[in-house]
Amino acid sequence: MNTEIKVYYEDTDASKRVYYANYLKFLERGRTDYLYNLGFTHKNILEKYKFYFVVKNCKIDYKKPAYFEDILKITTKVINISKVKILFHQQIKKNEELLVDSEILITPVFSNGKIAKIPNEMLEKFSN
Prior knowledge:
This protein has 128 residues and is an alpha+beta fold. It has a single domain (2-127), classed as Hotdog Thioesterase (Thiol Ester Dehydrase, Chain A, Roll). The chain is 25% helix and 40% strand. The chain has helices at 22-37, 42-49, 120-127, and strands spanning 2-6, 52-62, 71-82, 85-94, 97-109.
């Protein structure tokens, strides 16, 4: 799944490079679009299943910077999934140049912080 975004002034630091923490927001957009593409939204997951996803672990390798007004492509793939976690491999590229390579582990939790189980109907959509 691919998501395209434009780098805005607010995403950059004084050097007009993307501020390192903002790549986390870009990766989040990619994962959210991935969910939307499967027919889910964070809101309907919370309403129907009573849980939401939280990031448990991030591994990010910053290769090269992105700059103000760059158009970036975020590629999002599931590389491992179970009832209690989803591991994504995500990359951010400008044209075909790799800028960021990451693995993001998310887990479903109830509002009390306890780990939830991903329903089979969701797992099936992730597996297709």
